[in-house]
UniProtKB/TrEMBL annotation:
It holds the Pfam family Acetyltransf_3. It comes from Candidatus Fermentithermobacillus carboniphilus. PANTHER family: GNAT-FAMILY ACETYLTRANSFERASE (PTHR43415:SF3), SPERMIDINE N(1)-ACETYLTRANSFERASE (PTHR43415). It comes from the Bacteria. Residues 20-188 form the N-acetyltransferase domain. CDD domains: NAT_SF. GO terms for molecular function: acyltransferase activity, transferring groups other than amino-acyl groups. Signal peptide: none annotated. This is GNAT family N-acetyltransferase.
Amino acid sequence: MLLREHSIVLEGITPAGARVRLRPMTEGDWPYLERWNSDPEVLYFSEGDDIKSWSPEEVRCIYRTVSQHAFCFIIEYQGKPVGECWLQEMNLEEINAKYPRQDVRRIDIMIGEKDYWGMGIGSTAIRLLTEFAFISQGVDLIYIPGIADYNTRSMKAFQKMGFEVVRKVKCRPGSKANYVYDLVLTREDFLEKIREHCR
């Protein structure tokens, strides 16, 4: 199985005026993806308690599998690959059971180049994916599962876009996080936010 590729390109500008481009992830992107997914500091924020590194084989398997039901992108900042993100059909049964007969998606994102953290790139990518989901794809709801309490940058980036906490779960003793949070944004709330912005 290879990456399922697509032809969608999304472009935006950070609050500081820098160009961010989401371009299709391809089989030629493994050097970036493998490097980012073997960096313990990057994975501290993007993965669970016990993940310090993924092997090249695991990285390829993860992205190839996800891509079968997702739009997977490489995030470019001023033309340089700095991270990855995807808009995926919800793959958690308990979430789908909560929202029957609705098109529920999830967004996952990683800024793999640490020198580019805190520059608004993640927020811009989240905005582009959210707009793509609701406007181009007609998605009903985006559900973000399990943001750890110590990942404040990610939490703020989603909340800036209008996502709201719908669940707070206490973690087991010894976990990296004390709590993890699930966030949600519906198409109705997204469109209302746009209408308010235009008034």
